[in-house]
Give the backbone structure.
Amino acid sequence: QRTRTRTIGGIRDRLTQGFYPGSRAPYGYYRILTDLASRTPMDVSVPKVGIVRAKGCGYKLGWSADGEMRYVREIFTRAAAGASLRSIALDFVKRKIPSPAALRGDLGATWSGSSIWKILSNPIYKGDLVWGRGADGSNPATVQNYFGFVPDPPIAPDLWNVVQTIIRRNA
């Protein structure tokens, strides 16, 4: 129990300092190994999956408008316009856009309505990290698990809110 408490405390400390605790970056993001003290990026190649252990370092998240984030924006825009999750997924499969699972190395993984839903329901795209969310997107824990940390979120709050309303209405 003491180890668990200390681990959670360490993760919370890193979160409040703006560092990302996960071993996989969300779709469209990449991890930047950063020195904790100076908050400057380290000159190290960081794999998409897995952890590079370095004393005194943590991960920040970055994104590129011409990388997968352009597909995230397209997903949000199309969902706000009323497209079904399935139709977005089928179009991405047809256009041979790599799915999140395919980018993690799951050969043969394709887009599905649920993979689109996971992106649309992840608050990290509006700039908020919710630590402790369940695999289904639920957050059984309290509101203290919200950490706003993305300085330049790729999805505007207005677009995020419109899409959340549509998702709830269609659920």
